[in-house]
Amino acid sequence: MTYQSLREECYEANMQLPKLGLVLFTFGNVSAVDRSQAVFAIKPSGVPYEFLKLEDIVIMDYDAKVVDGKMRPSSDTKTHAQLYKNWEGIGGITHTHSTYAVAWSQAGLDIPIFGTTHADHTHQDIPCAPVLTDEMIEGDYEFETGNQIFNCFADKGLSYKEMEMVLLQNHGPFTWGKTAEKSVYSAAVLEEVARMAYLTLQINPNTPRIKDTLRLKHYERKHGKNAYYGQGC
Amino acid sequence: MTYQSLREECYEANMQLPKLGLVLFTFGNVSAVDRSQAVFAIKPSGVPYEFLKLEDIVIMDYDAKVVDGKMRPSSDTKTHAQLYKNWEGIGGITHTHSTYAVAWSQAGLDIPIFGTTHADHTHQDIPCAPVLTDEMIEGDYEFETGNQIFNCFADKGLSYKEMEMVLLQNHGPFTWGKTAEKSVYSAAVLEEVARMAYLTLQINPNTPRIKDTLRLKHYERKHGKNAYYGQGC
Amino acid sequence: MTYQSLREECYEANMQLPKLGLVLFTFGNVSAVDRSQAVFAIKPSGVPYEFLKLEDIVIMDYDAKVVDGKMRPSSDTKTHAQLYKNWEGIGGITHTHSTYAVAWSQAGLDIPIFGTTHADHTHQDIPCAPVLTDEMIEGDYEFETGNQIFNCFADKGLSYKEMEMVLLQNHGPFTWGKTAEKSVYSAAVLEEVARMAYLTLQINPNTPRIKDTLRLKHYERKHGKNAYYGQGC
Amino acid sequence: MTYQSLREECYEANMQLPKLGLVLFTFGNVSAVDRSQAVFAIKPSGVPYEFLKLEDIVIMDYDAKVVDGKMRPSSDTKTHAQLYKNWEGIGGITHTHSTYAVAWSQAGLDIPIFGTTHADHTHQDIPCAPVLTDEMIEGDYEFETGNQIFNCFADKGLSYKEMEMVLLQNHGPFTWGKTAEKSVYSAAVLEEVARMAYLTLQINPNTPRIKDTLRLKHYERKHGKNAYYGQGC
Predict the structure, then answer these.
(1) Of the candidates C42, C81, C55, C47, which has an alpha carbon nearest to the alpha carbon of residue C1?
(2) A106 touches chain B (CB under 8 A)
(3) Fewer CB near the last or first residue (10 Å), C or N of chain B?
(4) Interface test with A, best of B116, B204, B233 (most A CBs within 10 A)
């Protein structure tokens, strides 16, 4: 099989979604990129995880054209392609309809940074990109979804290297990382942070954000140049 | 065994309910229809899923008379019969007391359409049929439950082909589809959409509905004549 | 082993609690009575379910004196004894600290009857017995807990045959039934009904109770003299 | 292997965290102390539970210097060291980011004592230590986290023997006990009590605390000199 190791990376990452409780039926997809060949592997559209096979994974180029594979790729493929094309540093992308992340998306609100669980992963609010304009929706919708993520990051001055997650208003989350596996990790962290922020505001609707020193302390101890979290590898 | 394949379809679909977390004890039932013979198969009343056997499944006609089987059918059988008799396009029906769908039923409210998870499956609010009149309740209750679903769909101008789910006020959900399996799928989607809508309103009680262009875009990309979701089969 | 079948009934019913998600660690106990010998079997105090053995079950009389067994019985034993002594029709009792039932107990409120899931099991609000007086607490506390349940049922005009569950304010639920197994069933139903009522009021804080005709219809179709739910055995 | 039994106690206790649903990925750590040798064993930093091996456990002294082991210890190690150094009666410490405990931490509120589930374990509100000062955060952060716990206990007049849990504002819980296993037990109890208190206030925002007689009755029957809960061993 051509692109076997890329397909394997994509397949393994996709199979993490049901294990982590992030998907119902087929409501999610993960892709993995091979930068040396400028292609990415993605889940086929509408195939239940329990029936997904390695050879079903579809290989695409950055313009969302099929390079290899017999099945139709995820209907969200153009969004993945746009992100790979414009953000050279990412190696994998995950899209889910996980419950709490979707609830914040539907509410149309950024997730405020309330604690160190959030700050361990990013030091800013998790952005909710505004709903697409009618022109974007009626045009090349999934391609424009990628563009709306760029618009949001430009408007808020965010870097995709420091903020590896976004909500699309009325839709749900996209997350990414240096590998497909890490993009799934980000999807699980986002869902948990979304749940914690929800509960926090139910307990105290006037909860202020975490203060700057603590927010940056936790981000830096894990991601800064003098980071001391983990095994340094 | 007569009606074996119909019983099997019904049995398999019923056994999905506990796996999907949609039932506690015996609080649910699924039926499957054979249009060529004008009969449907349904779960027997009050039998726990762990003890349910293929031969326990009861075969009924559209007037809710037993055609084959030794056990008493589900107490909700007349509602199923009414739906099969009047809606020729459906092949299976599911009734559950799943938690979030029941909560909306008890609150007596339609589930507003807030996002694409909802719009991927139907492009309108999920209706809550008003509680039955005293005459209906004290008359042929389960038969009238079916009629109340028709009343609700007529009042709101809904099509059972585009809206495959309904809530009964103070009771719970009924869902349907082209097969019994698809009616179970609809029951699981409804429960998740009900949960997401609940959380959305807890986060932002003034959340507006999803706008028309996005609502229709998602419905059409999965169900329209130019649908491109799934493998086209 | 003496009292072997009674111990088995008690043991099996206790082991259902963790399977149904109704207990954390040792926070629950089930007892089973043998009316012919005027004794009941109960879980020993503080023994984790994973280590519980058949021979650990303790046999007690209705005055809460040990009849057989080497271990110390549940600290709630006198409450069980009081219920068996005064309510001759019950065969088993379950006490848990299940999450939603405890939340209602802590809030000190009866659980309003909002839907048919509730009405299928009892046609009235689930009562919350007021917190015990200081004299009762500082006296024979667990014995008086039984008495407070009787006080509550007397004040509200309830019958233990039609209402097989109660909340103790600031504490948690007790449930009962014709067998130990059925008392566990009632504990699971109570937890689910408590959760549904909670969610219903979060969605619509002004939700009215289910109307009388529907409430009685569902109770009667399952428990009335012309009941047609289940297999009639 | 040196310190084998200490490593085993630490390893076994750590492995309880995912089983009890208290951690996502690596968001938690447990330590176990050997008072006779004045060392403690702790989880290495950033190692997923599924890959954790006995020999990965790191042995530290009370000044948070590595005594034995090849891996980098948990980034929270200095907080553990401070607690062991100052509180001689504790044998194990657990830190998690469990969902409901974090929500209360983020809201910055003590968990009020509403019922007997709480009072069975401690007879006071569970304290939330205020967020550290900027000087503490920018200084020796994890060491100062331990100090902030002492400040909180001093301010509120609490004893670590009667209150085996604390929340750190904007962060999450630390719990302890006579053994590592008991500190994990406390972490699970805290999460459940936090969830129950949350639900209680959602049902009735004006819920008063449990009254003194009942609060002390339950604490004493389990922890007092005349305790009669458990098997007395």
Answers:
(1) C55
(2) yes
(3) C
(4) B116
Cβ of residue B45 closer than 8 Å to a chain C Cβ? yes
**Nearest C-alpha in D relative to A115:** D170
Interface test with A, best of D58, D100, D102, D109 (most A CBs within 10 A): D102
Q: How far apart are CA A73 and CA B228, in angstroms?
A: 10
| Domain-embedded: residue C177 | yes
Q: What is the SS3 string spanning chain D?
A: CCCHHHHHHHHHHHHHHHHCCCCCCCCEEEEEEECCCCEEEECECCCCHHHCCHHHCEEEECCCCEEECCCCECCCHHHHHHHHHHCCCCCEEEEECCHHHHHHHHHCCCECCCCHHHHCCCCCCECEECCCCHHHHHCCHHHHHHHHHHHHHHHHCCCCCCCCEEEECCCCEEEEECCHHHHHHHHHHHHHHHHHHHHHHHHCCCCCCCCHHHHHHHHHHHHCCCCCCCCCC
> Alpha-carbon distance A31 to A58, whole Å?
9
Average pLDDT for residues D198-211, to the nearest whole number?
98
Is residue A15 one of the residues assigned to a domain?
yes
Q: Which three-class secondary structure state does DSSP give residue A109? A: coil
Neighbouring subunits of B (3+ Cβ pairs under 8 A): A, C
| Burial (CB count within 10 angstroms: exposed 0-12, middle 13-18, buried 19+), residue C93 | buried
Distance separating alpha carbons of residues A147 and A126, to the nearest angstrom: 18
Q: What is residue D48's predicted lDDT score, i.e. its pLDDT? A: 94
Distance between CA atoms of residues C16 and B197, nearest Å? 33
Residue D228 in any domain: the answer is: no
Alpha-carbon Rg of chain A, whole angstroms? Answer: 17
Model confidence at C152, pLDDT cuts 50, 70, 90, reads very high
Q: Write out the two tokens for B107.
A: 């609150």
Query: Which residue of chain A comes nearest to B213, CA vs CA?
Result: A134
Contacts of D228 in chain C (CB under 8 A): 45, 72, 75
Q: pLDDT tens, C94-127? A: 999 999 999 999 999 999 999 999 999 999 999 9
What CATH number is attached to the domain comprising C171? 3.40.225.10
Does residue D71 sit within a domain?
Answer: yes
- Per the structure, how many domains does chain B have? 1
Per-residue pLDDT at C122: 97
Give the closest-approach CA distance of C123 to chain D in angstroms.
22
D214 contact residues in C (CB cutoff 8 A) = 131-132, 137, 170-171
All residues at 6 or more sequence positions from A172 whose CB lies less than 8 Å from its CB, including other chains: A95, A96, A97, A98, A101, A102, A105, B115, B116, B117
Verify whether residue D229 is a known catalytic residue. yes
pLDDT at residue B1 greater than cutoff 80 = no
Whole-number pLDDT of residue C233:
58
**Residue A170 belongs to what domain range?**
4-223
User: Which residue is catalytic, options B120, B140, B141, B198?
Assistant: B120
Interface contact C198, partner D, CB < 8 A = yes
Distance separating alpha carbons of residues A157 and D176, to the nearest angstrom:
43
Chain A residue numbers touching D96 (CB-CB < 8 A): none
Residues 164-183 of D with CB under 8 A from C: none
Name all chains with 3 or more CB-CB pairs below 8 Å to chain C: B, D
Given a contact cutoff of 8 angstroms between Cβ atoms, the answer to whether D135 and D59 are in contact is no
Residue from the list D106, D108, D141 with its beta carbon closest to the beta carbon of A217: D141
